[in-house]
């Protein structure tokens, strides 16, 4: 049995590599080859600018089956639908006005994060010429940047994929861990939190032009930390408490039933235990 196969059997993570508008079909084939090297099997291509022709097949080598099974979709939103964690790769440096929105992980930090979670993870790689744009990065809950020499900062698409898939492979290759694996939030759980956060900011009359950035900030924080269900449950309880103590005429009271927390796969939570968490005065 190969080491890549052993890693897939041990790994509780379902990884999807998403290539956004790749320009050269040969690069897509090279990415498929790299995926086969490190045990990744699911490839999604968003709006490719070149058909997958002979050059892609030639460069895929052992990844030919991955290339043939690749799914083509029109938008990034469709590619990441249902994902528990979306991580984007970019070489953008930290900007002055939105530094917290562009704060990125190193490849090593990405590998450790990948090795500590369970669920469906999407790794987004942008086109060769421009990379992921701002709107595509807004769909990401974490960002990873590969350090390079400033005189030549841009990597070939397949080279970037190799670095990141190598680190992900190390994260799930059976090395001893000193912590228990976390269970990342499902896409539904996270959406519940973001919706209530948006409502809370609105009720508090938070400036409308800042709400979107604040929600995105929390997406990035949750993405980097792979917060557990209990952690986000506490955060939801706090938001409900804020809404209860900021009365507004005509607005119904907010309770746990308004924004229930779906349980992630493999986690069993009793109704009574969940309700007790939201009683005022409970620790």
Shape summary:
elongated
Instruction: Domain count, please report it.
Output: 2
Radius of gyration from the CA trace? 21 Å
Question: Low-confidence parts, pLDDT < 50 over ≥5 residues?
Answer: 1-11, 93-98, 264-283
**What string, H for helix and E for strand, traces the elements in order?**
HEHEHHEHEHHEHEHHHHH
Distinct helical segment count: 13
How many E strands? Answer: 6
Work out the helicity level. 40-55%
CATH topology of the largest domain: Alpha/beta knot
Tell me the span between the first and last alpha carbons.
50 Å
Can you identify the CATH class of the largest domain? Alpha Beta
The overall pLDDT, averaged over residues, is 79
Let me know the CATH homologous superfamily of the largest domain. Answer: SPOUT methyltransferase, trefoil knot domain
Beta-strand fraction estimate: 5-15%
The CATH level-2 architecture of the largest domain is identified as 3-Layer(aba) Sandwich
Largest sheet, in brief, is: 6 strands, parallel
What would your notes on this structure say?
With 283 residues, this protein is α/β, with parallel strands linked by helices. It folds into two domains: 3-171, 3-Layer(aba) Sandwich (Alpha/beta knot); 187-276, no CATH class. 45% of the residues lie in helices and 11% in strands. The protein has 13 helices and six strands. The protein has helices at residues 3-10, 25-37, 54-60, 64-68, 76-79, 99-102, 107-115, 134-138, 157-171, 187-203, 208-225, 229-244, 271-276, and strands at residues 13-20, 42-46, 71-73, 85-89, 119-125, 142-144. The chain has a six-stranded parallel β-sheet with strand order 3-2-1-5-4-6. Strand 1 (13-20), helix 2 and strand 2 form a beta-alpha-beta unit. Helix 2 (25-37) runs parallel beside helix 9, helix 7 packs across helix 9 (157-171) and helix 10 runs parallel beside helix 12. It is elongated, with a radius of gyration of 21 Å. The relative contact order is 0.13. Residues 1-11, 93-98 and 264-283 have low confidence and may be disordered.
């Amino acid at each position: 049995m190969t080491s890549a196969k052993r890693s897939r059997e041990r790994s509780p993570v379902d990884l999807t590599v998403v290539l956004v508008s790749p320009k050269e079909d040969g690069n897509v084939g090279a990415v498929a080859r790299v995926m086969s090297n490190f045990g990744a099997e699911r490839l999604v291509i968003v709006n490719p600018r070149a058909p997958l022709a002979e050059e892609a097949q030639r460069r895929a080598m052992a990844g030919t089956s991955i290339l043939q099974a690749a799914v083509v979709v029109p938008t990034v939103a469709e590619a990441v639908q249902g994902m528990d964690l979306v991580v984007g790769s970019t070489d953008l440096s930290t900007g002055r006005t939105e530094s917290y929105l562009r704060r990125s992980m190193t490849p090593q930090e990405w590998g450790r994060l990948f090795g500590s979670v369970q669920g469906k993870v999407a790794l987004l790689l942008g086109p060769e010429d421009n990379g992921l744009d701002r709107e595509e990065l807004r769909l990401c809950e974490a960002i990873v940047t590969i350090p390079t020499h400033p005189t030549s900062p841009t990597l070939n698409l397949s080279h970037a994929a190799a670095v990141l898939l190598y680190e992900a492979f190390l994260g799930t290759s059976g090395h001893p861990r000193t912590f228990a694996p976390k269970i990342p939030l499902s896409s539904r759980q996270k959406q519940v939190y973001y919706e209530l956060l948006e409502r809370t900011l609105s009720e508090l009359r938070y400036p409308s032009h800042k709400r979107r950035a604040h929600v995105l900030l929390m997406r990035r924080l949750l993405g980097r930390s792979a917060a557990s269900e209990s952690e986000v449950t506490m955060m939801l309880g706090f938001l409900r408490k804020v809404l209860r103590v900021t009365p507004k005429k005509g607005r119904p009271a907010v309770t746990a039933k308004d924004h229930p927390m779906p349980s992630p796969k493999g986690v069993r939570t009793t109704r009574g235990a969940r309700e007790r968490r939201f009683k005022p005065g409970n620790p």
